[in-house]
Amino acid sequence: xxxxxxxxxxxxxxxxxxxxxxxxxxxxxxxxxxxxxxxxxxxxxxxxxxxxxxxxxxxxxxxxxxxxxxxxxxxxxxxxxxxxxxxxxxxxxxxxxxxxxxxxxxxxxxxxxxxxxxxxxxxxxxxxxxxxxxxxxxxxxxxxxxxxxxxxxxxxxxxxxxxxxxxxxxxxxxxxxxxxxxxxxxxxxxxxxxxxxxxxxxxxxxxxxxxxxx
Length: 214
What we know:
Distance between the termini: 44 Å
Order of helices and strands: HHHEEEEEEHHEEEHEEEEE
CATH architecture of the largest domain: 3-Layer(aba) Sandwich
Strand content: 35-45%
Structural class: alpha+beta
Strand order of the largest sheet: 7-8-9-10-11-12-13-14
Largest sheet: 8 strands, antiparallel, barrel
Number of domains: 2
Oligomer: single chain
Shape: elongated
Radius of gyration: 21 Å
Helix content: 10-25%
CATH topology of the largest domain: Beta-lactamase
CATH superfamily of the largest domain: DD-peptidase/beta-lactamase superfamily
């Protein structure tokens, strides 16, 4: 570490950082009060556009309607980012072991794809129970297709794409075990799920391709 030891001499892992982020949502009278934590992430300096700014020890930035607090870091061979939405009580931690890693990109996608599902679960927004059997990961040779429910809608996407939702999109019921793709690169195509006599989904056909459930 040499000259940068004061900034880089701590080692941690995802589990420890998850405890740290969780602590931001509740505080502890023996460590830091919740009111003190709130003051740390209150904007003390902001850009004129309020696209980003600083609290006390935390960087702040806007991501859509969310205000994220957190911090990033880098050292030779590593790049990291920790961000959390205190209002929604959701945090994202990304650790990469690459100089050209882009942890912020994964943070943003996690808030796009995962945070709404967590919020729906927290608020007990029930999805249509008959959709549960379609959820999962489907594989075709070297590619995968994930079916999930986001914001109460069926969604299909390729997880390895730069922007997963651009490769798939929302799905509208179009018959028994059939859904029409409403957005994405498969716009207009039918996703047809094959269901056996026991009600288990084995694969999905999308356009000219089929994907077998993992």
